[in-house]
Amino acid sequence: MHSSTITHSDPYKYQSGFGNHFSSEALPGALPIGQNSPQVCPYGLYAEQLSGTAFTVGRAGNQRTWLYRIHPAAMHRPFEPFLSIQNKVIGNFDTNNTVTTPTQICWLPFEIPESEPLDFVTGLCTIGGAGDTALKSGLAVHIYAATESMDKRAFSNSDGNLLIVPQQGRLDVQTELGPIMVAPNQIAVIQRGIRFSVGLLDGPSRGYILEVYDNHFELPDLGPIGANGLANPRDFQTPTAKYEHTSDSWEIVNKYQGEMFAAQQDHSPFDVVAWHGNYAPYKYDLANFNVINSVSYDHIDPSIFTVLTCKSVHPGTAVADFIIFPPRFEVQQHTFRPPFFHRNCMTEFLGLIHGEYEAKKDGFLPGGACLLSTMTPHGPDTKTVEIATMHELLPRRICEDSMMFMFESMYQLRLTKWAAKHKQRDHNYYKSWEGIPIRFNPDKI
Ligand SMILES: O=C(O)Cc1cc(O)ccc1O
Ligand SMILES: [Fe+2]
């Protein structure tokens, strides 16, 4: 076992691998053999294709799944506005509904409201984002804070792919393709259009969501690292088919062009008896990340810690990278070891799952966040600088019992008014860099 592995027993059966052509059947023989659409499918099921890429995308990038289900997904009443959360979630970030500032921003933990019952969907709030869902270009960062399980309610997002990072509380996620259990220190990706319903296994729950409009998440190329390392494909887990056949009322909430709609239907949307294809949700346990780093000198760019990337059309430049700062050994010599001072053409959104961040000793707490925008200067805080310039450079473990992550994007984020004016916003964040000792002496090299 890894020394810092956090283990959670997980009741579900998964298929292992990243981007594989999977197949799964909850009843034997439910998958048609040799074709996708027989005149009548086994067990009287209906065949339905779910396309995650345009039909014509090249073979290497094409993503689609065939579902064999009791009811076609089309059997629902019309979508109506879902008013209860209309203003908390947005998808298009223009100057009317958002604000912006280049200043460094930090939020203390986003509270889980106890006064009103909220589920994963009604407890969603958008922090910020960029772009336009209609053009399939941009991204959004959301927080969920929920006190109850979704009850006969499913959610489907037409706007992008969701990367869910639970921070507090395990989630029991029923998806059309089967159930996934995702705990803090694990992530789940649920792609555009896949219906899912979130149960809370540990009461009040909170987490972060990165939504990308442009493209799918993929594993980063490894270049000279070679064939193995970082997040290994076999550690990704995709669910197996599980269905229910009910005639109760369900509500399907659909985020479309940043607005929420709901449609009613008389059966469970989780009636897929079998499926095959490569467009399927997955989970990944961050404890499995194989950390690569410098064993000689200097602090390496955090791109070495990329778990997943969503590529843009600009080579080497991501719509968004999901990067983690896992427990690891730190051994570099004659080096300032912490994250360097820097300004970045990319935007950095930082969140903390548990523990503390190596470069900020105070005020960055699990469930909180920091935003460092394009070219906004930042780096280790005063206390970190003092310690790092003095301490003996012995090999040591760092970030033990902690997990910080970063959503790094080529886009410039605008903030919702909710996030910009949030009472948990720490207006003293700039003081992190106050009092850094000025040691310049032109007479002493
Ligand atoms: O700024 C940050 O806290 C994130 C970060 C970490 C690091 O190790 C190097 C660069 C960087 O942006
Ligand atoms: Fe940074």
UniProtKB/TrEMBL annotation:
GO biological process annotation, one example: L-phenylalanine catabolic process
Residues that bind Fe cation: 342, 348, 378
Statement: the UniProt record of this protein carries the keyword Metal-binding: yes
CC terms in the record's Gene Ontology section: cytoplasm
Reported cofactor(s): Fe cation
Homogentisate 1,2-dioxygenase N-terminal domain span: 13-286
Keywords per UniProt: Dioxygenase, Iron, Metal-binding, Oxidoreductase, Phenylalanine catabolism, Tyrosine catabolism
Descriptive protein name: homogentisate 1,2-dioxygenase
Species in which this protein is naturally found: Linderina pennispora
